[in-house]
UniProtKB/TrEMBL annotation:
Pfam families: DNA_pol_D_N (PF18018), DNA_pol_E_B (PF04042)
Protein family membership: Belongs to the DNA polymerase delta/II small subunit family.
Localization of this protein: Nucleus
Record protein name field: DNA polymerase delta small subunit
Cellular component GO terms held in the UniProt record: delta DNA polymerase complex
Species the sequence originates in: Parthenolecanium corni
A GO MF label: DNA binding
UniProt keywords, alphabetically: DNA replication, Nucleus
Highest taxon in the source lineage: Eukaryota
Main location: nucleus
DNA polymerase delta subunit OB-fold domain segment(s): 34-161
Residue ranges of domain DNA polymerase alpha/delta/epsilon subunit B in the record: 183-389
Biological process according to GO: DNA strand elongation involved in DNA replication
Amino acid sequence: MKENGDQLVQLRSTHDYEDLSGRFRLHLKNYERQFCNIYSVRIVEARRRIEKVAATKWKKSVKKLMDLNNLKGEQCVIVGTLYKNQELKPSVLRDVSKEYQTVPPAPRTHFVSDKDELILEDETQRVTLHGVLDVHSVVTGCVVAVLGKLQPNGVFMVEDYCWPEAEPIAKSLPALTQDKFLVLISGIELATNKNNLSLQLFADWVTGWSGAKGFIDASRLVHVIFAGNCIRCKPLPKPKYGTKTDSTDDIEAVKELDYIIQQLIECIDVDIMPGEFDPTNHTFPQQPLHKCLFPESAQYSTFRSVSNPHACKIENRLVLGSAGEPIADIQRYSNLTDPLDILEKTLDWAHMAPTAPDTLPCYPFDDYDPFLLTERPHVYFAGNQPEFQTKLKKGPKYDVRLVCIPSFTATQSFVLVNLKDLECQLISLNVNKKLKT
């Protein structure tokens, strides 16, 4: 609080910030590479950590799959990448054959059946898994260590399993002396959401101009992250033959987004991530929205167009998350339905998007896997979820705040995370009633 003549001026809190999304940026684009390379580097990078976990848990050394035949049914530990053999998984060849059918089958959104089976692969060979590892609770691409025995029929019977662990950041966190809040919002969908009054109320609330109770708290807001789907959450409708797609709504939405962000960045830092159907590349990781879309906002140093996924450090707290595409893809290829449960599982699996590149389109990385969780984040979020969910997951050295950010268009709400103690709360805006928290 600063005294200016006869007036009291509320000063906004400052904060330290470091952008860590460099591993998601594509500097040299080469699409001639094979997608198998990303699986090779994934298992190599994950093996060191998972072997350490397995040795601690079972006190056994890890064997290669090619050594199984020499063990003669002895109990052993093997490490590999899971592959789910799913007959309902979309196939280009199957789609071509369906063109010759008179009545096309109904489209599917969920591809799980009782005939699904798990296969474990490493650099040498593969083996079918049976046992305690539930095929419907995992997805293709997860690296796992399994304890069990090879059966006479060639199937490996799993008795127990473990996942690699994301290592906690070594140095201890300095304590914050005051509350500092991170604002998480997603799914404003300006091209399809014509009710911009609630979004303007959001901008007024963050900047402190709403006049509502909580103005003092507004001075503690230090950073805003737009977690995808700022323009739209669905693809443009396909044009009729001989006509052009009308993208006027998108053009107006970009202008409106630039106007809203300009209001925010005059007093607070803003990171904007693309979403699945925002104007950038469709494959994962999505590259930052071009700054030419924001002629006014791009002039400010407090504005950052970032990738999806996005990683940063705010007050030495590691913040990591996506616009929600990995969560939706895992729901399609497993019986996991709860977004918060899936978000927690990706943390346990130490991988943000295990289904990439199998069912989630991604760039063909060949020297590293950017989606592996090498460090345990403090705030781990997923945008564009149907409702707000959160959980404080206990862990070594410090806890992780899991956050499912609701779609702003559907719920008119956003999330505050207190960087001091990782407490989390939902802020709901109702344009027909007074502001409520």
